[in-house]
Amino acid sequence: MFTGIVEELGALESIESHGDSARIRFRGAVVTADVGHGDSIAVNGVCLTVTGFVVGEYFDTDVMAETLDRSALGALGPGDPVNLERAMRADARFGGHIVQGHVDGTGIVLDRTEHEKWHVVRISLPDDLGRYVVEKGSITVSGTSLTVSAVSPVDHPEPWFEVSLIPTTLDATTLGGLTPGDPVNLEVDVLAKYVERLIDGRGDRPA
After folding, report:
1. How much is the pTM?
2. Which of 195, 19, 188 is nearest to 97 (CA)?
3. How far apart are CA 200 and CA 57, in angstroms?
4. Average pLDDT over residues 135-147
5. Separation of alpha carbons 138 and 105, rounded Å
6. Could you give the angle at the alpha carbon of 136 between the alpha carbons of 48 and 143, nearest 5°?
7. How far apart are CA 1 and CA 90, in angstroms?
8. What is the pLDDT of residues 8-34, one digit of tens each?
9. What mean pLDDT do residues 177-188 have?
10. Which of 92, 90, 84 is nearest to 30 (CA)?
11. Cβ(76)–Cβ(106) below 8 Å
């Protein structure tokens, strides 16, 4: 499990294609400081398993083609920056929200408005995820825990949401470099999905 608090802005170093999978090397000194085989590291919000590493330098991971196709990882190339976060420790502070590293879908940056102290970014929202996103709720964008500052009306034909990015987020994550047309990974609040499932299940119970 993760919190969506990005620990480090790393980079994709290399990709080796193996047909229906790929081996990718990511560089990041912080997340590899105490890394071990089998550890989980979130890369732009995608939970990946460490298969090789050099402490303090980089780690390797094997990624299925489906993961590349269903997330924005497939759009990355050597040298591209990535948000990195190690799995949460049981004795650590919970600074963000519950993030599983299981991408629910991808969105596209629609607009970006720059203000003196913050930037507002509008992102498209897949139709099947709109019901889980509420104003002032939590959402994970490329591995970064954010608060939804605005959301499109329920009946909008092309759903969207907005997030406000403070200077720290702009400087310390890939979100600072987003431009209209860029794809991002989205993970909605898992608690909303559990609540929906529980409510749906009540309809199946006998009176």
Report:
1. 0.92
2. 188
3. 47
4. 97
5. 15
6. 15
7. 10
8. 999 999 999 888 899 999 999 999 999
9. 97
10. 84
11. no
Secondary structure in 3-state letters for the chain: CECCCCCEEEEEEEEEECCCEEEEEEECCCCCCCCCCCCEEEECCEEEEEEEEECCCEEEEEEEHHHHHHCHHHHCCCCCEEEEEECCCCCCCCCCCCECCCCCEEEEEEEEEECCCCEEEEEECCHHHHHHCCCCCEEEECCEEEEEEEECCCCCCCCEEEEEECHHHHHHCHHHHCCCCCEEEEEECHHHHHHHHHHHHHCCCCC
Amino acid in position 47: C
Q: Which two tokens stand for residue 8?
A: 């480090």
The contacts of residue 82 (CB under 8 Å, 6+ apart) are: 9, 10, 11, 12, 26, 43, 44, 76, 174
Predicted confidence band at 186 (pLDDT cuts at 50, 70, 90)?
very high
Paired tokens of 105: 């879908």
